[in-house]
Amino acid sequence: MAEKMLSAERHRRLVQHLRLHGSGNVTDLAEQLGVSSSTIRRDLRELDERGLVERSHGGASAPAGDEPQLQSRVTSHSAEKETIGRAAARMVQAPGTILITGGSTTEAMVPYLAAYDGLTVVTNALNIAWQLTRLPQLTVVVLGGVLRHGENSLLGTITEQALSQLHIDQVFTGALGIDPDSGISGAHVQEAGTDRSLLASARQVVCLIDSSKFGRRGPVRLADITGIDAVVTDGGADPTVVGALEAHGVRVTLAT
Fold first, then answer.
1. Quick check: 13 and 43 in contact, CB under 8 A?
2. Which of 25, 35, 75, 83 is 20 to 30 A from 10, alpha carbon to alpha carbon?
3. Mean pLDDT score of the chain, rounded to an integer?
């Protein structure tokens, strides 16, 4: 029984590591868990058979469509996200009410809201709400709901009911990917209902997304491209995809 429990704990920690970092190699994983490389290979084989990881030569990765957790994504493409956040903040229409959904790219725009007065900011993300505590001139509304650990976001019926009581002018959202044919997409089926409600709540939808996610499709469609008014991205965006988005009437801003 002790060995079985030890194996279960190893499996939990392996899955947690891969979801957080995206991938890992056998040598590093074995060192972290204090076991042999052969044990890690056996664990990864079992987890792969259960669909919890995807084995690769020398290691494994999180399943396709399973995005790394927020604390890891904050450091990914951080310079681009900072630039995107600054450009997105310039698009805010104040006075008014905006909604900022959870994510590392949307969080990057929060410091630049310091330039505004008479602005109400609604969010379902605890990390964004915390950043907003530094801007006392803004009115902040935090939507309730069920906490999704690792993402600091609030989801579910409670979130959607609270949202239905508000009038939102603009939504600023991130996404796992954007594609001219399929629109913007996410990674998690269990979040899709809340995410769609957030996007449908406003007269204008602005998507903040770095160029690495252009042309990418996640497993869950959140909005058709016709439901997106504007996209803010960095200068590395594929010109072909940018042109296709603009052909659909989407305003694309290349942040510099």
1. no
2. 75
3. 86
Per-residue CA distances from 88 to 73, 74, 142, 223, 230 (Å): 19, 17, 21, 19, 10
Give the pLDDT confidence of 162-205 residue by residue, as tens digits.
Answer: 999 999 999 999 998 999 998 999 877 778 899 999 999 999 99
Closest CA to 191 of 174, 209, 208, 170: 174
Yes or no: say if 44 and 70 are a contact pair by the CB < 8 Å rule: no
Alpha helices in the chain (DSSP H): 2-21, 26-33, 37-49, 70-73, 78-89, 104-107, 126-132, 157-163, 192-199, 239-247
Q: Does an H or E element contain 67, and which? A: none
Which residues constitute the domain of residue 211? 71-255
Same domain, 40 and 95: no
Peptide bond into 239 cis (omega under 30): no
Query: For the chain, what's the residue count?
Result: 256
**One domain for residues 9 and 132:** no
Whether the predicted model's global pTM rises above the 0.85 cut: no
Count helices and strands in the chain by DSSP H and E runs = 10, 15
Distance (Å, whole) CA 72 – CA 176: 14
Q: Is 66 inside a domain boundary?
A: no
Residue 27's CATH number: 1.10.10.10
